[in-house]
Amino acid sequence: MQNWIRAAILPAAAAVTFAGAQAADLARPVYKSSAAPVFHIWSGLYIGGHVGGAFSDSTWATDATNNGDFITENHSKDSWIAGGQLGLRYQFPANWVVGIEGMWSGVDLSTNAASPTLAANGLPNRFRGTDISSLYSVTGQVGYAWDRLLVYAKGGWAGADVELSTLNANNGVASSVSGEARGWTVGGGAEYAFAPNWSFAIEYGYYDLDMDDKGTIQSNGSPAIYRNFETEIHTVTGRVNFSFDWDKAPVVAKY
């Protein structure tokens, strides 16, 4: 009899124990590891365009239409600016970013006005013109990235296409020279990647340029010299860049 009771109770106890263990397992929460965040990577080739505003402050001297005396003129002008850029960047694992960029911009920094200095000396209607039609640069970049946000500084070589002119409105005698002003540029900006291959930036640039002295022949056959051309230009632009998927392995945050 006791053997029969033992045979009936043991399987039932085992079943209850197994069911309890299963219930405990079902009640215990299951923890899943969350995926590590993937950061934007700034390495690679990019191409883009920009548009904004520019301001120039230029000085130069000439003896044209002024009986051989050199008079220095100052011309200031603000203008639109628009153009394109092509660059290459590399992002280090510590989020520092370095790069190189070539940029070309069209501008309309053109002034033409009667010289107040000559007018004050009894020589009215002597006009002086300054025309800066383009800017271009090759710069290096250093920046730091916080995921999709990149803040950077830049600097390097810069140039501009310049034309200088004179006109004596009293007798029609005129002259002009043109050339390339060269110098340096510095600036910086903040860029945000709003899509995997697209980014938008706001950038400031400063240019300090000068041009070699130049001689020419005026329309009446007399010589003239243009010298000491210098200009400072400030620019503020909005930029849109498209980056190519080159060497862009995802960057995974490590903890």
Structural notes for this entry:
With 255 residues, the chain is mainly β. It has one domain (42-247): Porin, CATH 2.40.160.20. It is 12% helix and 65% strand. The chain has 2 helices and 11 strands, in the order αββββαβββββββ. It has helices at residues 2-27, 116-120, and strands at 38-39, 44-62, 71-91, 96-114, 126-146, 149-168, 173-195, 198-211, 214-217, 223-243, 251-252. The chain has an 8-stranded antiparallel β-barrel with strand order 2-3-4-5-6-7-8-10. A hairpin with an 8-residue loop joins strand 2 and strand 3. The two termini are 66 Å apart. 29% of the residues are buried. Mean pLDDT is 86; it is low at 1-19 and 249-255.
What characteristics describe this protein?
Porin; elongated; two-stranded antiparallel ribbon; single chain; mainly beta; 255 residues
